[in-house]
Amino acid sequence: MTDAQTQIGQPASSSQSNADLAPILPAGSWDSHVHVIDEERYAFHPDHLFRPKKASLDDLLAFEQTLGVSHVCLIQVSVYKTDNRLLVDTLRELRGRARGVVVIDPDTITDAELDEMHAVGVRGVRLNIKTGDQTLSREYFCDLLQKYARRLRPRNWAIQIYLSLPQFKLIADEIPKLSNAEGTVPVVIDHLGHPNQSRPVHEQEGYTELMSSLRRKEIYLKLSATYRFPNLPALGAYAKDVIRTAPTQIIWASDWPHTGSVEYNPGGNRKIHQEYRRVDDVGYVRQCIDWCDGDEDLIRQIWVENPRRLWQYNEPIQQKL
Q: What integer pLDDT is reported at residue 261 of this predicted model?
C-alpha cells in the first residue's frame, strides 16, 4: 500500500465515499482481527504503551457493513492488558454472532472465569511479543506456551501470537506439542508473521520454519495488516505463496481500527490521544482477492470456512452485522 493509504485518520473508512464501498465479499464472511476501544467506559491499564481514541461497536458495525462482512473476531487490544470487560460486554451485545480472543494471566485466572468467557464466545487468548519488542529465550518462550496450553486445552481454545518472523523460529518445534489427548490448541500467527521490510521474506530468518509449519497444518496464519510493512519487497509473491501452500490455514482480517501502536506515539507521550491510521480497506480487500487469482472456492475458504472452523462457529450463518 502507498504512504498515502496509511496516513493518520479516524476509525473506519471515513476518507472513502459511500459510492466506493460496495459489498465485495462472499456471504458469511469473517473479519478475524478487530478491536473495540473505549477509555471512557473502561480505563486503560496504567502501563499502556499508547493511547488510542475511541472505536465503538457502532463504528465497527458501520465499517464491516461497507465490506459485506457478517461476523467478526474481537481481539483484546494491548492497552487493556488482562482487563477483558469491554470485549466480553461487546460479545454479549453481539448475541452469538461474533467470537473473541482475550488476554489472560494463566497463573491467576480461574476456571469459572474462563467458562464465563467461553459462554459469550471467547475462543482464544492472545500472546503479544511484538509490541514492546520483548526479547525471549527459546526455553522461556516454549515454557510460556505450554503454560497457556494447559489452561486452553480443556476448551480447545486457540493461542494467537503476535511476534516478528525471526521469533517464530524459537517456537516452531514446540507448536505440535501444545495439543494432546486432553485437548487441541490451535496456533494462530498474526499479520503474516510480521516480516522485516529490509529484504524479501524468503531470505529472512524464520521463513523456512513458518512455511514448514503451514505445510503441516500446524498453524493458522492471518492475512492482515500489511500496511504495517508497506515497503516489504515482493509482498504479493509472499502472500500468494502462503495462500497456495496452505489454503485451509489462512484467515483474513482487517486489523480495524488501525491503531498507530507504539511507533505512532507523538514524542513517546502516552497521554496524548492517538489518531488512527487511514487505510484503504476496500482496496486492501480487493488486493487480497486478487492474490487468490479469482478462485471463488479459495476466496470462500479464506473468508468463510477457515474462520468458522478456527473460531468454533457451528451455528447457522445469521444476518450480516
A: 63
Strand ranges for the chain from DSSP E: 6-9, 30-34, 71-75, 99-102, 122-128, 158-162, 187-189, 220-223, 250-252, 276-279
Q: Tens digits of per-residue pLDDT, 11-63?
A: 544 334 344 545 579 999 999 999 999 998 998 877 766 668 899 999 999 99
> Mind giving me the DSSP string for 97-122?
S-EEEE---TTT--HHHHHHHHHHTE
DSSP letter string, 278-290: EE-HHHHHHHHHH
H/E run at residue 321: none
Instruction: Report CA dihedral (147, 122, 303, 247) to the nearest 10 degrees.
Output: 20
d(Cα 75, Cα 73) in Å, to the nearest integer? 6
What 8-state DSSP symbol labels residue 90?
H
Instruction: For residue 57, give the H/E element and its range.
Output: helix 57-67
Residue 4: pLDDT over 50: no
Euclidean distance between CA atoms 220 and 192, whole angstroms: 10
Report pLDDT for 43. Answer: 81
As a three-state string, the secondary structure of 141-183 is HHHHHHHHHHHHHHHCCEEEEECCHHHHHHHCCCHHHCCECCE
Is residue 259 exposed (0-12), middle (13-18) or buried (19+ Cβ within 10 Å)?
Answer: buried
Cα separation values, 131 from 77, 163, 203, Å:
11, 8, 23
Domains of the chain plus CATH, in order, are 30-311 (3.20.20.140)
- Give the range among 47-61, 75-89, 91-105, 203-217 with minimum mean pLDDT: 47-61
Phi, psi (5° rounding) for residue 103? Answer: -115, 130
